[in-house]
Design goal:
Elements (H helix, E strand, L loop, with lengths): L6 E5 L4 H17 L2 E8 L3 E2 L7 E2 L3 H20 L5 E7 L2 H11 L4 E5 L6 H6 L2 H8 L4 E4 L10
Parallel strand pairs: 1-2, 1-6, 2-5, 6-7
Antiparallel strand pairs: 3-4
Helix pairs in contact: 3-5
């Protein structure tokens, strides 16, 4: 059985963990001469207060423009090593946006970092990478940042 990897999706949240995972995604894209798409999902920012349940906090369109600008900077750097690189900024819940993009564009593999949000945000919402692994329509390669070592309880 031959496995073809033609399209790779790499979620980017502009963290060190995502940048580390991007290096793996780029290596796979180069090895398979595959198209590499960087995706960033902008969540509608909200402010939670004891006085008010949920308030809009910031303009989601401004956040999307800022994210696209950051992705464009990454693209310039990556395209020096691999020409088949695209970017996509979406607005919505990150794990849902990643999975929908993978389905709609027949992605062959997703490469993402194992760490993103942590602390209370992780407890309340769960890990984006955990949800992507469970729901993705294709194989998912999760990359652990070398600085995040397992510590025995």
């Amino acid at each position: 059985m031959k496995i073809a990897i033609n399209k790779i999706l790499c979620p980017v949240d502009f963290s060190d963990n995502a940048d580390h995972a991007l290096q793996y995604a780029l290596a796979f894209a180069q090895a398979h001469d595959a198209e590499l798409t960087l995706i960033h999902a902008v969540e509608n920012p909200v402010l939670v207060s004891l006085d008010y349940p949920v308030l809009p906090y910031g303009n989601v369109n401004d956040l999307a423009k800022s994210a696209q600008h950051k992705l464009d900077e990454i693209l310039v750097r990556i395209k020096q090593e691999h020409e088949k690189v695209l970017s996509k900024v979406t607005i919505g819940t990150p794990f849902i946006e990643i999975i929908q993009y993978a389905r709609n564009h027949e992605v062959d593999m997703i490469v993402l970092g194992t760490h993103g949000k942590s602390g209370l945000a992780h407890v309340l919402m769960g890990s984006v990478s955990e949800r992507v692994v469970r729901k993705a329509p294709c194989p998912v390669l999760t990359i652990k940042h070398p600085e995040h070592e397992f510590v025995m309880p």
